[in-house]
Amino acid sequence: TQIEETLVLVKPDGVARNLTGEILRRIEAKGYSLVDIKLIQADRGLLAAHYAEHEGKPFYIPLVEFMESGPVVAIRVAGNRVIEGFRVLAGTTDPTTAAPGTIRGDLGRDWGLKVQQNLVHGSDSPESAARELELWFK
Ligand code: DAT
Ligand code: MG
Fold first, then answer.
1. Is the pTM of this model over 0.90?
2. Hey, which of 67, 88, 93, 120 would you mutate to test ligand 1's pocket, going by the most ligand atoms within 8 Å of its Cβ?
3. Catalytic site residues (predicted)?
């Protein structure tokens, strides 16, 4: 076993659609543990740091504006190989083509022109997880 921690965010669309419980249910059903959790209205500075790797990309400003449009639920999740495992649970980035059985595939809606409404964020590597957990739970 390889116990890791990852950062999961239920994005503003997930919170607004009352899907937080369903997303937590899937995380817990998989066997992962909730270590810490909070509802937070993220400010521009936190989001700029969180999404620094995407600065300058065409979807960056709409992404940040979407992420500050309402509260998000930040969760510290622990489990065996949870960083990669949660990414699989979430499904691919675009909910339109995310596989059935995944959070985005089952619950996501199509992207509009300027929105990134794919319900969840999950850290994509051990380095990202450490960096993002420090940002959201310092
Ligand atoms: P992921 O969230 O699957 O790790 P990412 O890190 O590449 O995806 O991008 C961060 C977010 O930005 C993603 O959840 C939704 C949005 N996004 C990514 N690529 C996009 C695109 N081509 N058009 C619009 N939004 C995009
Ligand atoms: Mg990412």
1. yes
2. 93
3. 121
